[in-house]
Design goal:
GO terms for molecular function: zinc ion transmembrane transporter activity. Helix content is 68%, strand content 10%. The chain is mainly α. The protein folds into two domains: 197 residues, Cation efflux protein transmembrane domain (Alpha-lytic protease prodomain-like), CATH 1.20.1510; 75 residues, Cation efflux protein, cytoplasmic domain (Alpha-Beta Plaits).
Length: 287
């Protein structure tokens, strides 16, 4: 969390510099990069807020109504971040295509100086978030945006150099289009991953059909039903399953099924309901 806070501070400074330089020079490429930095700032702010809320929930007296705590706050923040980035990228693309018809003159030296500063800031934050991106969806969201901004800063740097060397006015809107097109697919993946969690779709790396087959192969187990596997938040996968067991084998089936879920699928937080013929008949499913 400390690295996230430091990275946020660095990006706020970079955002201020790029917005000022973009408005002063009229560079759309700089403003597009600043727009992406803005989403980084908002995304990292939401990530920090979600992490703080989860920690607070874990250390304070939890409301009995919040049986899962507030872990999903991280996922909601990631989805909001993806929606925001889609909007910014869309605006940049529309504006850039409009400028392609009659590109304005943009001072390349201002673009060079501001992009160098932005590139340095992005590289610092990129290194700060690299490890955390493997553990948290929300930090990964910020990490991907910083990665896009890093490449965006390189693009603005190239556009500034081309403008200074050759006076080619198309360099600015062309780079702005390239940045927008680069960011959109990554934003789509981030939003899709967040929606998968919110819709309680099974994690992509878990084959539910294979899981059911492995449980069905447990000696004494039969009639595997009501299998549910979902992600609560980054790194927290849970599930539930109902099995019928042969008479006298309930404990053995429970132990074996838990072992299958742990060793084969890395699922430790799973509720396994063992039923006999009478309990199964009395628990008719309604949904």
């Amino acid at each position: 969390m400390r690295r996230l806070g430091v990275g946020l501070g660095v990006l706020v400074v970079a955002l201020t510099v790029e917005v000022a330089a973009g408005l002063a020079s009229g560079s759309l490429a700089l403003l597009s990069d600043a727009g992406h930095v803005l989403t980084d700032v908002l995304g990292m702010s939401m990530a920090l807020a979600a992490i703080l809320a989860a920690r607070r929930e874990a250390t304070s007296r939890r409301s009995p109504q919040r049986t899962f705590g507030v872990y999903r706050a991280e996922v909601l923040a990631a989805l909001a971040n993806a929606v925001l980035l889609f909007g910014v990228a869309g605006w940049i693309l529309v504006e850039a295509f409009d400028r392609l018809e009659e590109p304005p003159e943009v001072p390349g030296t201002v673009m060079l100086a501001a992009s160098l500063f932005g590139l340095g800031a992005n590289l610092v934050v990129f290194l700060l978030l690299r490890q955390g991106a493997k553990e948290s969806l929300n930090v990964r969201a910020a990490y991907l945006e910083v990665l896009a901004d890093t490449l965006g800063s390189v693009g603005v740097l190239v556009a500034g150099a081309v403008t200074v060397a050759f006076g080619w006015r198309y360099a600015d809107p062309v780079v702005a289009v390239a940045i927008g097109l680069f960011v959109l697919p990554r934003t789509w993946k981030l939003g899709r991953d967040a929606l998968r969690i919110l819709l309680q779709v099974a994690p992509a790396h878990i084959d539910v059909s294979a899981l059911q087959g492995d449980l069905a192969a447990v000696p004494g187990a039969r009639d595997i039903h009501d299998v549910h596997v979902w992600t609560l938040t980054s790194g927290m996968e849970v599930g539930s399953v109902h099995l019928r067991a042969a008479p006298g084998e309930r404990e053995a089936v429970l132990a074996s099924s838990r072992d299958v879920l742990h060793r084969g699928y890395g699922l430790d937080h799973v509720t396994v309901q063992i039923e006999d013929d009478r309990s199964a008949a009395s628990c008719e499913r309604q949904w």
